[in-house]
């Protein structure tokens, strides 16, 4: 197994006295599915942000896909992000673009040839089961459908890593199950998946590796764990 | 190639999608550039009036009675060589009398008596390329042997010089001020467009778009709005100027006004278009940069 994500003594503060993360050590291998759990304010979102270099650590080292992110140059960041898909609680879809355009946009702005775009968009929309809604606009879709579009967009480039920050935060339990199943499916195709979540039942149901954060530190790291020990 | 195609299709798609706001931005830009054009027209008019006045400034150097033709020719040559001198004209006694006759056509009989013994002195008439040379030129001419006396509008030339400087400063200052205002107006309207796309820029960054892909379409949009704005502004400025020109001419026919020729129209449009494009592009880049910080 090769190491895709490696955090060494990582601390992060946003200038105040409170540390969002403190001395976090973490290793995630290729092909893993990892839940990050913990109460609000425990540092889950900060951890996710460090992984796609939305934030840089105040101390310590974050190595993702073999790159030390603190040393990564500004113009190299886009190329890192092309290998990492990110999904959020609020979907972050573009309202004035159709389902198809939302996904193709991600490929278009990274310079993918048209033929390749058509092929990939068609594939991922099939994967998330929304190919027949390709011409709909986001506001015509349910929350669950919108999140599936966001996942399709994140997977369009066939990334090495898929990050999700509270992907079911706005969704009912049945829809949440669909979303987590989709993430699991992506994992089965070989993508490493890291999900920060509050959804206890889902964590308990899927029985994956669970990392629990409290006040910015890792208090538990369990194979096939549950939401709480 | 892929990049250029993307930039063009995205820029024009976005302009078209936001037809109204694109048009309003162009119109605002056009208005700011219109003001710039008007200040340009005012400045060329001030300059025009000034050069017209300047052209009428003439130095008359009277020649002593017993100067030989040779001496005169040498003097004309020497004057020609003084820095700042543009034209030198020798006016003989006979020429001077002819001029006088033309001036007093209806009283020709009075002048006839002068024919026998012409009292008018021969002179050299000198024009300088600019009023600022007059003092120096006069000084030099006065040192010449065959020159009797030098007459020029001393007070007028001094005043012209200070007015000339003022005209330059005022028109330059006006253009700079109006230019600065148009920079702010255009920059602001582009910033509004970009602020409305903050969300889209966020998504582009998230999926790994390089800065070029993010900024490119905005730069082109800014350019297009700058060009459209400068065309609108130029059309208005020329239209209003020509209208004013006719109206003023009807009332005060002798008012010196510069009739717009193709070259000055082109120059004005050039200034407006370049300002529009530079400001459009700079405004886009600055505004997008603020949203690009990783």
Write a brief structural summary.
The complex is a heterodimer of chains A (229) and B (294). Chain A is built from 7 helices and 10 strands.
How are the secondary structure elements laid out?
The complex is a heterodimer of chains A (229) and B (294).
Chain A: E1 3-13, E2 19-29, E3 33-37, H1 44-51, E4 59-64, E5 67-68, H2 77-81, E6 84-88, H3 99-108, H4 114-127, H5 143-155, E7 161-165, H6 173-188, E8 192-196, H7 200-206, E9 209-214, E10 217-222
Parallel strand pairs in A: 3-8, 3-9, 6-7, 7-8
Antiparallel strand pairs in A: 1-2, 1-4, 4-5, 9-10
Helix pairs in contact in A: 3-4, 3-5, 4-5, 5-6
Chain B: H1 2-17, H2 19-55, E1 59-63, H3 69-81, E2 85-91, H4 93-103, H5 108-112, E3 123-128, H6 134-142, E4 147-151, H7 154-195, H8 198-206, H9 211-251, H10 262-292
Antiparallel strand pairs in B: 1-3, 1-4, 2-3
Helix pairs in contact in B: 1-9, 2-7, 2-9, 2-10, 7-10, 9-10
Structural overview:
The complex is a heterodimer of chains A (229) and B (294). Chain A is of the alpha/beta class. Chain A folds into two domains: 1-83 and 159-229, Rossmann fold (3-Layer(aba) Sandwich); 92-158, no CATH class. Chain A has helices at 44-51, 77-81, 99-108, 114-127, 143-155, 173-188, 200-206, and strands spanning 3-13, 19-29, 33-37, 59-64, 67-68, 84-88, 161-165, 192-196, 209-214, 217-222. In chain A, strand 9 and strand 10 form a beta hairpin. In chain A, helix 3 runs parallel beside helix 5 and helix 4 (114-127) crosses helix 5 (143-155). Chain A is globular and about 45 Å long. The two termini of chain A are 27 Å apart. In chain A, 46% of the residues are buried. The mean pLDDT of chain A is 93. Chain B is α+β, with helices and mostly antiparallel strands and 294 residues long. Chain B folds into two domains: 2-53 and 160-292, no CATH class; 58-152, 2-Layer Sandwich (Alpha-Beta Plaits), CATH 3.30.70.3040. Chain B is built from ten helices and four strands, in the order H-H-E-H-E-H-H-E-H-E-H-H-H-H. Chain B has helices at residues 2-17, 19-55, 69-81, 93-103, 108-112, 134-142, 154-195, 198-206, 211-251, 262-292, and strands spanning 59-63, 85-91, 123-128, 147-151. Chain B has a four-stranded antiparallel β-sheet with strand order 2-3-1-4. Chains A and B meet through helix 2 and helix 3 of A and helix 1, helix 8 and helix 9 of B.
